[in-house]
User: Fold these one by one.
Assistant:
Number 1:
Amino acid sequence: MQYSTVRHVTVVVFFCCCGLSAQSKSPTAPFPQTQSVASKPAKKKPPEPKLTPQQEQGLRLLKSAEAEAAGLEPAMRTYVLWQVSHGYRKVDPGKADAVLRSAFAASRAIEEQAESEDCHMEQVCHVQIWLQREILEEILGAGNQANPGRVEKLLPQASPEVKKRMLESLASVYVRKQNFDRARQLLGQMDENRYSYGLAGELVAAMPASRQDERLAVFSQALHNFQNRSLTDLDPDSYDDFGILLIRFWRELPPSLALDAIDTILERSKDRDDSKKAHSVTLTLFEGKSLAFGSEYEYRLFQLMPILKELDPSKAERLLGESGKARLALDRYPGGMQSLDPNYYGDKPPDEKTMPVVSDVRPALDDDPMKNSEYESKLEIDAQIEAQMQKVMEEVKKDPEKAYQDAMNLPLRRAFAKSGSPRASGLRQAAFGLMKDNPTLARTAMNEVRRLAQDVDPAWQALTLADVPDFYLKLGDEDGARSAIKDQVKLAEKLYAMDSDAGDPNLAFKGAWPSSNAWRNCIQQATKVSPAFVEEILSQIPEPDITGLQRVMYANALLGTGKSIIAVVEWHKDGRRSGIFMGK
């Protein structure tokens, strides 16, 4: 299930109301001198903030990169312009918008690779789709500043796939802006196998009770879609699922319609089980627990039984007698999904500040019961680790020394092999929390992080160590920061050797290579040390395209632009594949 600007301008009109005498109402009589009104002077625009010498240098680098982008092949030209727009955002928002539109225009020349069932990474096989979608999401904007009109103007120029994918984002913005008619139009335009039950729920929750007929029409549309959708496109999902839509809003439906929806869900889950389109289902909780069901049908019974008990108790009891696992799960959580998380599975818009209880709903990947059991065990172990890490993060703010102790007790590895070290991640958080009151213990924690990181996958190692130089800079230890950055440069070179291996190169877009990301971080951290240090690093990068891209990252760092969301992807012919998505 990851995982993204309208300016509200207030126009104030000043009306000067003058009390006029009877004489002054005559069109030919002049206003008395005492009643003349001087017009208010126009407000002066505040002076533009003066750029620092560092920002001026960043701006020069950006302008140079923007000009040089014209000579790059379409995908890299698009990517560079996209990153250039981030640099302009802080000093010239209008220019940033213009460059972002130029990036979108450049993306139209990108040639997509042929479809491949074996490739699901956009940064490998569908670079145009990835870049266009990311750029349009930025043009759309976020929160109250989102401007769907700007995207709708550009959408006809997007690839057909991007047009389909952007419908949900646009409709979601219209829901938040309470333009329910437009949101319904876009929901109705979605392809049958892309219809979003999550968006339908968002729309129904936002619409007022006075529009009950329309709320019912949205649910009926969703039910019709579910009844006709391909079995292969009906994987249960805790965030976007017709069963969840029914759980949230069944009380608003006529009982006959709610029962019809229950029957449809149960029948389709049986069809999927019989056709091997579904396997056992594991529902993972953030608290470190999980609920395992032997089939999708059993999971659906757990989902729907609380509703069925109220609408048709005898049928509920009969069906429940057929499923021991569903009964056991309901003994623990009598309200089904709403017992697990009344915030998310209630009939109101969820409180986004509240962390969801359910982290994942995932069908098993194999028909072999032994393999499924092993898979479910790993999911539960990782859920327990996630709960322990969450505890450490909460302790960092209140009791960093306790956070350090608990981080030292975290496991070295997750259950699934290729990932970072939970202990190293927890200790890194504790080190930053200890900096102020116990710098000695903070250094001890960070030294252990650096030691542990040597044993993880190189791409994860780069992410784990990304903010280590910043740690030393905050302690006032420039030599320590330089040493940490130099270590990361060596790691970037090691990653580049893997990315550029002539016999089995990384097939992902170069801007998403682990080595590109590692150098990016080196440049951003070295900017805080000295320009000469940055130039030294840039001179050692062996590939001109990557060097040019890193100069943009240098410019953005000089301008004070925060880290943007970056995809880090490794995709080799020999089967080594991973995708990591960095947050800001």
Number 2:
Amino acid sequence: MSFIQLIRREMQGSLPRLAVMSGLSGFGNAAILTAINSGAEAASSGEVSLSSAGFFIIALILFVKTQHYTLITTTAEIEAIIHRLRVRLLDEVRRTELLPLEEIGRAEIIAAITKNTATLAQAGGMFAFAAQAVVLITFVALYVAYLSPLAFVLSVLIVGAAAGRFHAKSHELAMGTREAATWENRLFDRFMDVLDGFKEVRLNRTRSDDLFKDVLEVSRTAANIKIRTQGEALKRVVFSQGSAYVLLGAMVFVVPAFSSDTLGASIQKTTMALLYVVASCFGLVQSLPLFTAANAAADNIEQLETKLRTTVTGAPVSAVEPRKSFDTIEMRNVVFRYVDKSSEATFQVGPVDFTLRSGDLVFITGGNGSGKSTFLKLLAGLYKPESGEITLDGVQVTDNERDAYRALIAAIFSDYHLFHRLYGIPDPGPAEINRLLAQFRLLDKTSVTNGEFRTLDLSGGQRKRLALIVGLLEKRPILLLDEWTAEQDPEFRRKFYDELLPQLTQTGATVVVITHDERFLDEWHLPARRLRMDEGRFVEQR
């Protein structure tokens, strides 16, 4: 999709009216030139042309008014389009499924919402000037044809040859721009590796050096592609500028040699008219690389939207009526496979048979890479089974019911995210929040005001406690915990098993816990199921 196609599709204002006003602005600009030429001709004869002066004033007022309207309207429309694109992309992201989103990657999504929309905004600022430059050049061309048909024909030949040469590598430059964007997305991923894996990078010098070498290689490749692409674009700009000077030289040195009737005032007017539009031509040519980048940005956004639309399933989020209770969830012969993008290795969970009843407390243990976290995402409805089925109270969970199914579940995964605000909890009771903060020993660390935490600058274990508080405030019947105790100190880990879990079971909550705390489980005497997972299957149950 091109930048112009994007504007035509997304613009809600009157595009014909904007085009008319832009045309009038260009006409006013050309009329100013005509008035000045006419006034200069009268002045050369020692006279003052009042009609030319009046025409100049009218043309100036027309230009100023239409220019104001065109620029302000264009800016407002472009920013409105970018706003709608950002909102729509985020809406499609929040409605897509987890696995396709992981396959797309954060870099492409963030680039579309930030970098690509910023490119569109820059191109939008140039769009009005470019449109006016085209109109101005058109009227000046007509004016030149009126003054000298030969000069007009020669101008068309020179400009046509320059335009053909200019357009010859447009496709190649567009491909280079898209390739550079792809490598910059890869570079973003490497930066995120450095930031997200900072502890691991600092602990292992060899890993740090290898990652840094990879960053250098990716950055160097991206830079080389951009240098090559922008170098070709700048060559086209210089060529276009040279062509403009060739055109002026032809008017002065070539046209008089073939047509004597263009000598004198006529050739002066023609040259002045062409000089008048040279700046506009230079601006138009220099804006073309930006429009090429805008075309690539619009294409990237369109491709991302296409990917996201194909992954959006089920009813809209706002249409889901959350369930308050359930009796039984069953997983029958559920199999899930995925391919790791970095190693191209295939991982499989299943076939799995599992039943979860209201009020159950289930512990799941197993080694790293055994499939516990993937199973939890299947149970949460974040991953869709490749085969088999999940039923809720005897009814199969399909795409249309998956959001309603997920509304039963609150979860804290190992890679959880803690929000600054209590989103989705419209009226959290201050007394209940303070009680939970005190119970989790966080009352002196943070607080909640108007639904927002005072600070999240906490230790890893404290952040997980705060995440569990948020999960409890959601008041959903099922709570899934993935290695929640991993970062807790021994005292609070004991408190979790001896105090928090019994309280949850007494309130009728259904809790599934992934844990490595074998010692605590061996000492436990409360009713609970204990499952062990190995190579994606349950191998033991107690």
Number 3:
Amino acid sequence: MGARTRPRFLRSFKYVFVCSLVIVLALTGMLLFIVSPATFHLSSPTTISQQSLPLARVHPYLTYDEQAGITFTQDFSSLAFNVTAVAQTGPDGVGPGYLLSGLTDAGYWYQVGLSWKWPSTNGASLPGFNMNYEVFDQFGISVFPTSGGGGIDTIQVNSGDFVLLNLSFTGTVVMQATDWNTTSSAAEYYPAQGASYFVGLPNAVSSNGFFTGLMTEEYHSAPYYGSGQPVVYQPNSFNISSAWVWADEFNTNTFQPVFSDATPSPISFGNASVLEYFSFHGMAEAISAQEFITGLSPIKLPLLETSTSATAHTGEQVTITLNLQNSNSLAIRVNSLIISTQFGVFDVSSSAPSSPIAGNSTFTTSITIPIGVVTGNYSLTTVVGWHFDPQLKDWIAPDPLQANTTITIGGTAAPPSARPPSTPPTSTTTTPSLVQTLLRTFLLPALLAYAGAVAVVVVLVLRRQRQQTLPGPIPTSLACRVCGKAVGQTMLFCPNCGSSLTSPSDSGSVSPRPQPP
């Protein structure tokens, strides 16, 4: 048996139903998207978490090792940084080391650096500037120099010079320091052990104490919380995309930490000219894509206070007063101002002072309470992004300032008594919401157009079905009044006798036309 064919009307109706279902689902999805409340996220200030400790040498008389450094997240085939030669010593009379470190893909850790009055194994300081170097195997054992404990090479450096620190692959790993001013240079070499690049760490500050990055290191005889003098590292030929920032101090005999802090995630550098600022236990660091600075003195952050009017109403503007107390007299520049509430997040950065603030300052901004907010008390958080000038060449961006206050929403409109007496009462109009505007502008016309289209399709289908099923007119038979033969309704003369079928006759007949022979 052949397949049974469905009536044409049912096929047409099925087509109309499917089209209707698709359009209804599309419009419903659009409506749900429009009326769904938007989710706003406000970044919180950076917090600090504990991280693992980088390796250090053991000095019998100087057992506390303080380190401030960064760990790169990207891989490098070579590393080259310029560092300023700063002659400084701590309370024990020994100075720091300014070190470049590279962890290879074979697991070996290479270090090269510049030091000032670096401590010897007996606790005494070595004279002047020197190049430091050391290599650790994948198990954390110092393998170069062979005696362990790190090596020292003599190099001619003056205080304030720029010194290039370099780690590169040439069959071996080259550890080199070169003074750009005196052209004095020193280099050491150790096998690469099959490695070809230095490994970045996007997910951890260190790997078993190893990392690829920069570090300022200084030894002390007792726990120390100090910053020293600023030391600037600058990449020689590339920019840093992101890095961990960290600082720690621990006992090199027991590995008991005094403190160990780091950023909870790598810092990405979108603006290469602005330094981001971090403070850890009496020391401070700053970093950008082009610079890393250690030895900054921690600053006392400005204090931010905010206040609002006692009661506000929906649809009205609320004035927010910000009081910035800058006891350090830093040159502060406000670059962003965000106000966060339960009924929305407002970017009012345009109302921030355009010129630097040198001391205490008070300024105002305002937000508009949206229509439809329920009456009650709401928390209001103000976050101020700011930079300060540490007397370096770049502005530093610390963590944002934040202050909280409470705002009271008292109703949908101000009470009549609040209007000025000279202002005549006016009719109250409600500003349509975004959803209402979208419904009127897009969805309602679309629904009406859709309904009209469906109606037209249904009418056309029914009319076509009726034309196919209803019978046509039944023709009526006619006869010639002269000869009686059947004739058609549209004929003017009888085809049999030639008599006129339209001319009247008193006798009901007409004379026959003469027939041809």
Number 4:
Amino acid sequence: MLEGLTSLPVDSTKGLGERMPTEDVDEFIERRIVIGMIVSTEYLQQVSKYWAPQLLESSTARIVAGWCLDYFNHYHRAPQHDLEKIFYAKLQEGAVASNKVEWVESILGSLSDEYIRGQFNAQYLVDETKKYFHRQNLRNFVTNVHDQLNKGDATRAEQLALSYSPILNGHKTFINPFTKDARNVVKHAFQEREDPLIRFPKALGTFWNNELIRGGFVALTGPEKRGKTYFLMEFAMRALQDGCNTVFFQAGDMTERQLIRRVGIYLAKRSDQPRYCQRILVPTLDCVHNQQDTCKDPLREEGEKGVKAFLSNGISHEALVNACTKVPNHLPCHNCDKLSGSVWLGWREEVTPLTWKEAYRRFQSFETKYHPRFKLSTYPNDTLTVAEIKSLLHIWERQESFVADVIIIDYADILAPDPDSTRMEFRHQTNQIWKRLRGLSEERHCLVITATQAPARSYEKETLTMSDFSEDKRKLGHVTLFCGLNQTPDEKKIGLMRLNEIVVRESDFDSMRTVKVLQRLQMGRPVLGSYW
């Protein structure tokens, strides 16, 4: 059963249109088609190849679509806010009937600046448009045949029946990238990696930004209590800041209230628990050359020298605590591109525990700045299925025009099998779940991110490898990135996590090459900085 369905501050009317719970399917998809033509050049480029105005039921939709196509043919881009100027110019000319004005104004009213600047899942809408046009073409064909039969002209009805051909003429089933017409297809294939849905800065961005794309399926693995949920939350918060429609499915690892509290702590950078509000050491990015006093760059921070004596035997929690105690005025430096990454510990003074009122203000401030389109859906352990996820995505799309760009699942190991998989062995159930999560990323052209537990032997390993999978090794074959979370007890004291690529589908990878991530989970922050 569904325990909770919450939207942390979000205007549910933002997206591909307005809330339309009572509109039929045809009107719903036609509104989405028109809005896609208004806001997305990529969508216009693809749909114009097989456009046929008679496939739209609404005469008003046909008119607005025609304006978009005329604009695209002239300027080679989507009209976006220019459509409002076109509409009022047509209105002054008397070219728009009075009974069509309200429909057009409702479409224009759903186009916010934030929506146009945000992510738009053009490829998913292209797929849905193809399905709708195919259905409409078949419906029109059946109607024409039936009309001839009603007229008593069986010969003409038979001729029509034998002449049927799909309107898409092959666009639905195949593509030939070697033709001149494939220019935009090739362009978007390469552009996908240039425009990840989620962007991280510095070394961590270099590590995984190229995999955080539409159609990606990313999984994090590590032993229990290694911070996987914190990283999933970090993905969600950065996705929202990058304008993505984001869904976070909590499959039973935490309650709804626990996760909401974590988001509040993340925003405030301090805990609601007094024990985590005491004076604590926080890791900060520094440079080896700065610590060893060998840097002569004029950009270098001019702090107290003498750290080298305490770190001569390498970085450890004890050595860093000793160094920051003895050299309290040392200034970490990462001012130039010659950075050789290291870590420094600095004191964060005691703070007052976070209250719900301040957390609420933080939520509202985030809403004002980013206008997040976010849904948190929480289920008890072992009740959420992939089929249920698909059902909810379908409901939100139909009721609110909410199409997810990023889907985060915490986490895959506690998903229940779909009804058609319950009689399988557990290992095969696991494989089926991971296959369907991969299918979800492909069908909806979205990024799916989840986590999985590493096996018991990983407790003794410093760095995870391909052999460290749980239940079924086939899950490695379904992901586009399988990332390990590695941390020794001393690194945990420092606030240092090492991430490594265990599997990367489309890139060369080395499991022993790690990116180091600075973090302080007591402040709700799994990523404070990163370096190689």
